[in-house]
Amino acid sequence: MSCRLEQIVMDFPGTRALDGVSAEFRFDEVHGLIGENGAGKSTFVNVLGGSLRPTSGQLNLEDRPVTLDSPRAALAHGIAHVSQEGSLVPGLTGAENILLGAEPRRAGGVLRSRELNRRAAELVENWFPSLALPLDRPVGELPMAEQKVIEIVRALRGNIRLLILDEPTATLEAREKRRLWSIIRGLPQRGVGVVLISHFLSEVRDLSDRITVLRDGKHVATLQAKDATEAQLVDLMLRREGALGPAIVAETRSRSVGAPVLRVRDWTVGGVTVPEFTLQAGQIVGLIGLTGAGHFGFARSLYTRQGVSSGRIEVAGRSVEARGVRAMQQSGVALVPDHRMENALSGEGSVLENLSMVHADTAARSGILSRRAEHAEAGRIIRLLNIKTPGDGQLIRNLSGGNKQKVSIGKWLYGAGDRYRVLIFIEPTEGVDIGAKQEIYAHIRRLAAGGAGIVIASSDLIEIAQVCDIALPFAHGRLGTPIPASEFSEARFIAAISGEAA
Amino acid sequence: MTINTGISAPGHAETLRKGKGDWLQRYSTLGVLVLMFLGFALFVDRFLTPLNVSNIFQQIAILTIVGCGLTFGFAAKEIDLSVGYTVGLSGILVPLLLTLDWPLAAAIGAGLIAGLVVGIVNGLLVTKVGIPSLIATLATGSILFGVNFVLTGGRAIYGGLPQSYLDLGQGSILGVPTLAIFMLASALVAWFVMERTVFGRYIYAVGGNRKAAELSGLPITFYRMSALAIVSLFAVVAGALLAARLGSGQPNVGERYLLDGLATVFIGMTMFRPGTATVAGTFCGALFIGVINNGLNLVGLDTYVQNIVKGVIILAAVAIVSRTTKLSLL
What we know:
The complex is a heterodimer of chains A (502) and B (330). Chain A has 502 residues and is of the alpha/beta class. Chain A has 18 helices and 23 strands.
């Protein structure tokens, strides 16, 4: 009674998302699936749920090979997928959502509403007799937890043997979570196996019978949940080949560190409070943590000021009272964000247009651009960062990931002189090949050597170890003890971000 | 069963391959325009005469001016559906004030101010109230439509218009029609602002990726509002010239400039920089429509059939743009 995936390979243009992953999901267990962002969890369950056809590999259902070429085909084989985003129609009632697409009708397509309500109530009663769900109200008005349950009931309305739950508790409050947990725990006894994706490790450990860990598109381990510790799971999720060697860590950090360029007090953003944070000129500070720990949000908020409920911020000794991106940018703070095609670049724009997005006026007199000055300045940045492009007229979307990222950095150098005293990088080498990675690191060091303060929030611990002078771990919404470069080690990082006392 | 999706090598090879595809894409519409022109020239007797070519330019002059304005809107990813009624507004207001014995400069100044007001109202609705421009300008267009009829009582304004005003739309300087001069001047100004100034660069940045522009510290509200204000300003200039050309102010002549204006921009977006509105593209788009209208006219095709042909061509243009780039206006 199980579903086995064997040697699943999934190629997307330019990347291999899954590299020969095998796993077995039984119909009498909750099976946790964990891994950092980009590890391939979502791709894997999309293959299982019929949303993606794998490049190669096989899927066996009770030892018979099957082909799932659509979610509908997966449902017909008893596999249902409840995605993270939710797929309810907010304006329809719970009952209508539960029977969406399978409504009882009269001849001519007229809905039999009373019958629909009766059947929906019957389904809920059958699966979760102890729950009192208001099935007659539009689901958009219901709390998130009840919406999730309605989605699960809808998934279970067929003859389902395996239910995929992708981050089911991500949007829930603590009390709501507990309700959902008992529902999930009860499913295997009814003959429905659960594949649970969650980035809350304690939740996965408590709910699951077995846990499978993915990393960089590969299967790392499958282990009994009761035997696993959180630190061990984090270690499996993060440890990479060619781990931090002494050579990397011992790299000389001879920059002189100067006066504070950024100072933050009592900074509360989302669920994270940082009592004090100081960045000095010439310093490179790494922010580390597991997904959801709040280090990305903290880094971003230093520039966008979004979601900041309290706190004071000083740039180069001067308090910045005005809120918003422009105030921060004009006081000398720059952000090189993650997801560059959404947040940093215009794909249909040229290299020149993107480079000049912040300081086009540098090559202009009275607002009129000088072609010559523009090409000269763009050429300087292209050479400085070694951006590989046939010319500054090339469209961004035609560049490789590493070169796109260099343009995203170059925006803050084009015509800027040394205006930016604080540069914040979020996942600076996301989707960047190894060669370009090293060039980007070299440039970040050069910026620091030039007197800028640098903040890097990254999920790549090797990156942090290679580039940073100090690492600040975030765990459980709190800032842990800073780790100086001399103490960088994988074990130390992992202990710190899984919240164990260092 | 296995499916092999070859992993394409990134870098230079890809760049070159795409470069070639881009080239074809960039100039295919232009090629069609040239072929169409040659076709009419060969098979329609009166097409390639100095008089007729000058005619084509006069016919597309007002359309081009409206299109140049709309190009600013599209470059910032804002659409203005009220543009036809804005043309109508100044096409009524300016002659109306002239019949009330306002001096020419004052009447035209009032028209410009009216355009600015319309543009700023559109801009505020879009940026401050947060209504998507497609919907906001649909509503303001309806309001303007009503205003235009209230101003005129539904009747045309004519008689008593000074010759100096009529000359703007009907005269010529050294044998060149004034309308053609206004068209070229508008296109040049629009081109210069879009391609050669910091302002134009940032309009493109805001339209290219609003989030990225915002995170770069650009005042995006200012650029979105400016783009919409410029659309209206070009529209009122076009309206004032239109009434001068017709010799009268009529409440409903502006309407056709909405669809034709959008068409010029859409056709223009298939060329030069596919998916992006450019002034050069818009100009060619206007020529495209001008050549079709004029040629089909000379062939003796009915105006209604011309509309059908035009609609089909607009669909083809938009289909090309949407298939090859991510055209999103909402």
